[in-house]
Amino acid sequence: MRIASLVPSATEMLFALGLGEQVVGVTHECDYPPGASELPPLTRTVIPEGLTTLEIDRAVRERTERGEALYELDAEELRGLEPDLIVTQAVCAVCAVSVEDVRAVADELPSPPQVISLDPSTLGEVLGDVRTLAEAVGAGEAGRRVVDDAADRIDRLSHALAGVARPRTAALEWLAPPFVGGHWTPQMIEMAGGEDPLGFPGEHSRPASWEEVRASRPDILACMPCGYDTERSAQEARDHEHDLAAVGAGAVVAVDAAAYFSRPGPRLVEGLELLAHILHPDRVEAPPPGRFVELDFVGARGVR
Questions:
Q1: pLDDT at position 297
Q2: Does 296 have pLDDT greater than 90?
Q3: Cis ω for the linkage preceding 33 (within 30 of 0)
Q4: Is residue 14 exposed (0-12), middle (13-18) or buried (19+ Cβ within 10 Å)?
Q5: Which residues are CB-neighbours of 261 under 8 A, at least 6 positions away?
Q6: Which end of the chain has fewer CB atoms < 10 Å from its terminal CB, N or C?
Q7: pLDDT tens across 97-121, in order?
C-alpha cells in the first residue's frame, strides 16, 4: 500500500506501526522519526517565516476570518505519488491542510485513494485512532501492541501517583495572546497528578487574558507553545517574562510541545510521563535530557 500522510501525528503512527516503508509522502513539518523528513513534502505553509508569536497569531486570524487556507497542498506531487490511502485530520484548522481540500484533490486523482481523517479530542481517542489506522492498513496486531504498551505505561503512572496532592497546573499553548491548553492537555494534567484550573478535557484550546490566568492561581505554569521545541518554548517564556512572573506560580516550565504535547500521536504518552515528573518528581523518574526547562526569570537553570 502507498500511503500519503498529511499530518505529522499520522506519520508518527504509521512509523510506530512498522509501516514507514509504505509512506510515500508527508507534510513539510514531519520531522519524526528521522526517516520521515527524507520523504517528499506534500504541503507548505502560507505564513511567512521569521514572525513573532503575536504576528503569527494576527496572520492566522486574518486569513481564517477571510476564509483563506493556512496550508497549501501540492496536488501535482500527490498525483505523481499515486497513493492508495491519504491520512489527514480536521481537529485543528491551523495545523494542517483542510480535510475538504484533501478530499477535493483526492476525488480528482485518476484512481481516487481512500481518505481517512483522524480527529481526536482526548488521549483515549488518540489511542483509538491508532487502532483505526492500523486496521485500515492491515496492521491490526501492530496496532494492538502500540495501544497495549501505552495502556501499560498509563497504568504504571496511575499506581505511582495514587494519593498524591494535586498542584494547580495551568498549560498555555500560546503566549501572545495566551491560549489555554485544550483537547487532550487538561486530561493529561489530571492523569499526571495535577488539577487544571483553566482547561476542560476534550474542549478546544481557547484564548484567555493574563488576568484570567493570574486569577486561576496556578502552582505550576507549563509553557507549551504549539509546535515549538524546548529551546523555542523557553525563549518564548523569557520573551514574556513580565506576564508570566506576574501570574505568581511557584514554578514555570517550558516543554518540548512539538514532540510531546501538540501532536495527537503515540508520543503523547511520553508527554504524560514528562508532565508527571514535573508535577511529582519524587514519584516519577526524570525523562531523558532536553525535554523541559525550568525557568527562574533570571536565567534558565539548564535543560534537564
A1: 67
A2: no
A3: yes
A4: buried
A5: 171, 173, 181, 185, 188, 224, 255, 268, 271
A6: N
A7: 777 888 888 888 888 999 999 989 9
Q: Taking a C-beta distance cutoff of 8 angstroms, is the pair 47, 70 a contact?
A: yes
pLDDT in tens, 243-294: 999 999 999 999 999 999 999 999 999 999 999 999 999 999 999 999 999 9
Domain extent listing, the chain? 3-121, 167-295
Q: What tens digit of pLDDT does each residue of 126-154 get?
A: 999 999 999 999 999 999 999 999 999 99
The CATH number that domain 167-295 falls under is 3.40.50.1980
* DSSP 8-state symbol, 14: H
Contact 267, 274 (CB under 8 A): no
C-alpha closest to that of 236 among 56, 77, 36, 35: 56
The answer to whether the beta carbons of residues 154 and 271 sit under 8 Å apart is no
pLDDT, mean of residues 50-77 = 76
**φ, ψ (nearest 5 deg) of residue 93:** -70, -20
Range 3-121: architecture per CATH: 3-Layer(aba) Sandwich (3.40)
C-alpha cell of residue 158: 496511575
Q: Is 243 helix (H, G, I), strand (E, B) or coil?
A: helix
Give how far the C-alpha of residue 295 lies from the chain's centroid of Cα atoms, to the nearest Å.
Answer: 22
Number of Cβ within a 10 Å radius of residue 217: 12
pTM of this structure: 0.90
Q: What is the spatial distance between Cα 34 and Cα 223, in angstroms, rounded to a whole number?
A: 25
- Please check the confidence at residue 164 and state whether its pLDDT lies above 60: yes
Give the bridge partners for 86, in sequence order. 4, 115
